[in-house]
Amino acid sequence: MFGNYLKMAWKVLGRRKFFTFVSLFGIAFTMTAMLVAVAVADHVLAPSYPETRLDRMLVLASVAMSGDRASWHAGPGFKLADRYARDLPGVERMTIYTGPSESSSFLEGRKLTFRTRGTDAEFWRVMEFAFVEGGPYTKDDDEKASRVAVIGESARRRLFGSDPALGRSFELDGAEFRVVGVVRDAPLYRLHSSSDIWVPIRTITAAGFFDRLVGECEAAFLLEPGADPDQVQAAFRERLARVEFSDPALFHTIVGLPMTQLELLARLGSRADDTSPRLVLALSLLGLLAFMALPAINLVNINLSRIYERGTEIGVRKAFGASGLDLVLQFVVENVVLCLIGGVVGLVAAVVVLESTVLVAADLALEFHLNWRIFGATLALAIVFGLLSGAWPAWKMSRQHPVLALRGGAS
After folding, report:
1. Which whole number is the average pLDDT over 13-22?
2. Residue 38: pLDDT above 80?
């Protein structure tokens, strides 16, 4: 019987090609938009190169220092991270680094600009970069403020063309650095690691950089397997209560917490120690449901139109003993088949969009790809679409009186 339902569904889809096209377009467009959004979110929130252990990481990216007359909200300063964030319970490794800033280099009369990060040596043990030449700089390099650097493949091409870069020197902001390693480029959306050039953090010469509680740094914590992030956050919060301020009359309170990637993205300008992502998640879910409702409503309307057009068929089948359940199953199967076809078209379109983005923005090292988990979610969503948009019209159809159906009416 189910095979007959499938055959009938295929014939019905070809009967009114315009309605079928409109339905498929709505489903495929919705699926494409959702899959692209999910793929982007998946690659931003999920562990991937070089932040392959992001699921075990907390990042201190923002702190707020306040007093009776002033407040200062920015990233943690080097002094705060170095003095109060080390050796937290449950933390396997900890690194301090700056955000990417613009640096300049002059090559044969041309000015080249690069994104540059200052990092300590532990950075290369928390993040997992793929080295294509050499290796990372060492703790000794950092402590001695050695002018060494790790560069990305794109920076190597701009500085040295197709030649190897290991051991060669280049000028950066008026200082000469020697290349000790070359890594595969990190995508821009890897917010805590991507850059063009990485140098030892102690080569930074800005006045007061190492004496600030609030500044331009971040600190990343790689947790021990099974460690509780809440306990790490509680331990850091307790340490902030003991911070010594250089001018207590101006500032006397500082707040901030190391957070997961989801908490960082969900904070959206709230307090530096607010880790609740519930509001953003709720709004995202509501937006997703509203977006899904548009094609579902469209399908319901189209299905109702199809039902009224097939009134004679419905009346004949009911007159010959077809039960309401048989008719409901027939229409639900037809709708699920339609949605599965639309889901497959949407999947193919999403792959094309993502691969095109990767090719067009090759210099940005973007790597958006669909995976089997997302593919499975697509098929599940297609089936849900079919059930939601077909159940009510099918139930309404099954309640038609055979005589009224034969006359083209509806109960």
Report:
1. 72
2. no
In degrees, rounded to 5, the angle at the alpha carbon of residue 376 between the alpha carbons of residues 375 and 382 is 90
Q: What is the pTM of this model?
A: 0.74
Which residue would you say has higher pLDDT here, 349 or 84? 84
Token pair belonging to 410: 């509806």
Query: What secondary structure, in 3-state letters, does the chain show?
Result: CHHHHHHHHHHHHHHCHHHHHHHHHHHHHHHHHHHHHHHHHHHHHCCECCECCHHHEEEECCEEEECCCCEEEEEECHHHHHHHCCCCCCEEEEEEEECCEEEEEEECCEEEEEEEEEECCCHHHHCCCCEEEECCCCHHHHHCCCCEEEEEHHHHHHHHCCCCCCCCEEEECCEEEEEEEEECCCCCCCCCCCCCEEEEHHHCCCCCHHHCCEECEEEEEEECCCCCHHHHHHHHHHHHCCCCCCCCCCCCEEECCCECHHHHHHHCCCCCCCCCCHHHHHHHHHHHHHHHHHHHHHHHHHHHHHHHHCHHHHHHHHHCCCCHHHHHHHHHHHHHHHHHHHHHHHHHHHHHHHHHHHHHCHHHCCCCCCCHHHHHHHHHHHHHHHHHHHHHHHHHHHCCCHHHHHCCCCC
The CA distance from 150 to 141, in Å, is 12
Q: What is the pLDDT of residues 252-276, one digit of tens each?
A: 999 999 999 888 877 655 555 565 6
Half-sphere exposure of 36 (CA within 13 A, CB side): 18
Per-domain boundaries in the chain: 2-47+279-406, 62-258
State mean pLDDT over 188-192.
89
What token pair was written down for 390?
Answer: 């077909």
Closest CA to 203 of 184, 178, 221: 178
